[in-house]
Amino acid sequence: MARSRLTPERESELYAAVLDLLGEVGYEALTMDAVAARTRSSKATLYRQWGSKAELVVKALRHNKPVHLADVDTGSLRGDVFAVMAQTDDCQMEKNSALMRGLSHAVHNNPDLFQALRDLLIEPEITGLGVLLQRAVARGEVRADNPALPYVSHMMIGAFAARELVDRQPVDQAFLTDYVDSVVFPALGV
Predict the structure, then answer these.
(1) DSSP code of 1?
(2) What is the pTM for the complete model shown?
C-alpha cells in the first residue's frame, strides 16, 4: 500500500492542516484542492492515501485524539475516567468541541462522513469505554445489572452537547470532573 511513503511527521502535518482548514471553513466548504494547496501536496496523492474527504477528515480527527480508552487501567473506574480526561487540556477540548459542532450538521447531509465518524471515532470510543466499564464490573465496583451501564456513553456525549446549549459555555476539565462526579458515578453506584 502507498501509505508507507508518508513519514509519520508528514502525516501529522497533513492532519493538522486538515483540522485547521476544517475549523476555518467547515466541512462543506473544505475541499481536497484546499487541503492540497495548504499542505503542498497533489490532490491525486490525497485521494490515493485517503480515498475521500470524509475519510481524510475523520482520520485527522482520530490522529488528533490518540487516547485509546481500553489502554487506560489505573485499577479503578474513578482513576481510569480521570486519567482519560487528564489527557486533554481545556484548550484542546474547546477545539475538539468546535470541530464536532461543525461536523454535527455535516453528518446529516453526508452518509460517508457519518459512517467514517461512526467507524473510526465513535465506535472505538464506545468500545473503549465498554472495556473500562467491564473492568469495573469485574472488580466489583459496578453491579453487572446496573441499569445505567448501557447509557454511560449517552451521558458523556450529552455532557458535551448540553454544555454549549444549556450553559453557553465550552466543555472544560472543571465541568467534566463535576459532571462525572455528580451524574455518571452516582448513576453507576460508584
Answers:
(1) -
(2) 0.74
